[in-house]
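Reopening: Peptidase S1 domain-containing protein still failing for me.
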Amino acid sequence: MNPAILFLVIFSTLSLYTKAQRSYPACGDQEECTVHTACDEFKKLTVKGFLTKDERKYFSSKLCKNINHIYHVCCARKMDETRTTVLSLTTESTLQTEPSLQTEPTLQTEHTQPTIPRSKLPTAPNCGFHIDNRIVGGVETSIEDYPWIAKILYLKSNNKTGSHCGGSLINERYVLSAAHCERRIPPSWKLTAVRLGDWDTRTNPDCQKFNNEELCNDPYVDVDVIEIIVHPEYIPLSPSQPNDIMMLKLKDTVEFSKWIKPICLPHDPSVGGIDFTKLSLEVAGFGKTDNATSSNVKMRLDVDGVDQERCTGYYGPKSVSITSYQICAGGVEGRDSCNGDSGGPLMRSGSFPNTIYPHFLLVGIVSFGPKKCGTKDAPGVYTRVSEYIDWINSNIN
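Support: Ran it again with your exact input. Result attached.
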């Protein structure tokens, strides 16, 4: 895909690090600007499972006010409900069809508690927050997108530092990545730190124009790694790359901000059993462009889940075993996780109890794929994070 494709539109609902202020459109004549929790239409959406791209876009379009991070939406006036036409998020004529939400396991379970205590790993709405207003099919991200993405830094033999893998911030002290990002690197390299809050590698801080005004982030933060925890059953030389997952413990506690936030993990057991076939997933990071050069700007891409049979059909003849501990996605020519990072996140957006906006779950970690990125019918392979929640829990201290 051509990296010069349409740039993304910034959508800011939080306070800006700029003089420019976010302006919201006025509500319609038959609507009122009210707290989202008081609007029946939006209440119903909070109990749904995974949301489609159109539903997430609709959330964004209905914002009318933000007071101290309390979001207000344009809601149909109750007195006019009988004669007011409101966009239905489940009407096929107004939305592009995606797999029915009602056939997908919901993320809301009253009696299921996360395996990991909330004090160790955040749960929504304190993780994975990302309001979507991008142009579908875009490659470059907005400056505010995916604030959990980390760049893993290596000290090389020439005493220079480089980044060749990505990861995801999961709380204030830990980053999750792929084990091969430590076990399959040149002997002269040393994994030393992670970089958080970066958007454009050419500048620091970074700025992006929005309506002729500049939105600028804070300078990125480099945090030393004091412990590398590789899954004990990872086999570096195996072509199947089983248990390709590791945790990086950071020396210092990370201070969360608009530009640095953790992503949610799939605590709920119902998420672990989801068949992601044909579901829309997302990858992001500082990966390769179509001319095989690394991107200066954080990139993202939609990829669809691929069934295990089709995935095995491609990798089986290459002596690669695909298991239930992995997810396959992509396989469309020119569209693959090279637009993200090795070790970076495979994500799915969903709704949670007591939240109005969708939050991102880290469902997979970029593990491996075909030698030529974006090869037709050759999906990428990702480590399925839900299968390792207990292992993650046991290694957080």
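Residues 170 and 262 are 5 Å apart (CA to CA). If you still see a failure, please send the error message rather than a screenshot.
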